[in-house]
C-alpha cells in the first residue's frame, strides 16, 4: 500500500523539479543565451541579464536588445524575421529551337526560393588627408565585415543533347546542348569580389 502512494509522489516531485530548472528562452535568441561558452562546464552561463546595462536615457528603451561590441552577441534578430532558407526545384517546359528547324519541347527544371543573407559590420578604418583638415574620415572596409549571401541555384546539373529536325537544311538535323537542372539548393557566394 505504501508503494502505491510513494511511486506517484516521487514521479510528481521529479516532474516538478525538471520543469523548474528549465529556463524560458527569450524570443529570437540564437544561440540560446543559457548555453555555456564552449564546452567549459565550470564557467557560469551567459545570459542577457548578466551583461552590463547602459543607463543613458537614450538607450533606456532597448537596452537589453543592444550589446557592447566587446561582448559576444547572442540575439541576432527576432525569430519572426529569421526565416529558414528554402529552395525548390520546379518542373518547366522548355522549348528548344533553331532557325530552319522544327522546335522541340523538353521537360527541364528551374530553381525558385528565398535564401538568407547577412552583413555584419566590424569597424571603420580612418584615413587622414594632408591637404584638408586633420580630421580622420571614416572609410568603409567591406572586407573586414562578415558577409554571407546565398541564393537559390542549381546544385546538380547535367547536359543533354537535343536533336532537332531541320527539313530544309543539309544534313536534315541539328543538335543543341541544353543544361538540365536536377536539383537546386541555397548556395553561398563570394561577395567580397563585388566591392
Automatic annotation (TrEMBL):
Residues 21-69 are annotated as: Disordered. SMART domains: CT. It comes from the Eukaryota. InterPro entries: Cys_knot_C (IPR006207), Cystine-knot_cytokine (IPR029034), DAN_dom (IPR004133). The keyword Transcription regulation does not apply. Residues 1-21 form the signal peptide. One of its GO terms (biological process) is sequestering of BMP from receptor via BMP binding. Keywords: Disulfide bond, Secreted, Signal. This is Gremlin-2-like.
Amino acid at each position: 500500500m505504501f508503494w502505491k502512494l510513494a511511486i506517484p509522489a516521487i514521479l510528481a516531485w521529479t516532474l516538478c523539479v525538471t520543469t523548474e530548472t528549465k529556463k524560458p528562452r527569450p524570443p529570437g535568441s540564437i544561440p540560446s543565451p543559457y548555453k555555456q561558452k564552449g564546452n567549459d562546464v565550470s564557467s557560469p552561463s551567459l545570459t542577457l541579464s548578466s551583461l552590463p546595462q547602459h543607463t543613458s536615457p537614450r538607450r533606456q528603451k532597448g537596452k537589453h536588445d543592444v550589446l557592447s561590441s566587446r561582448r559576444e552577441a547572442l540575439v541576432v534578430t527576432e525569430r519572426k524575421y529569421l526565416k529558414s532558407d528554402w529552395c525548390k526545384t520546379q518542373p518547366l517546359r522548355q522549348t528548344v529551337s533553331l532557325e530552319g528547324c522544327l522546335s522541340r519541347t523538353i521537360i527541364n527544371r528551374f530553381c525558385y526560393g528565398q535564401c538568407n543573407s547577412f552583413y555584419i559590420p566590424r569597424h571603420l578604418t580612418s584615413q587622414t588627408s594632408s591637404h584638408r583638415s586633420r580630421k580622420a574620415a571614416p572609410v568603409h572596409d567591406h572586407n573586414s565585415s562578415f558577409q554571407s549571401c546565398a541564393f537559390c541555384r542549381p546544385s546538380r546539373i547535367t547536359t543533354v543533347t537535343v536533336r532537332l529536325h531541320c527539313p530544309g537544311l543539309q544534313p536534315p538535323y541539328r543538335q543543341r546542348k541544353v543544361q538540365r537542372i536536377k536539383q537546386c539548393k541555397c548556395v553561398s557566394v563570394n561577395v567580397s569580389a563585388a566591392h
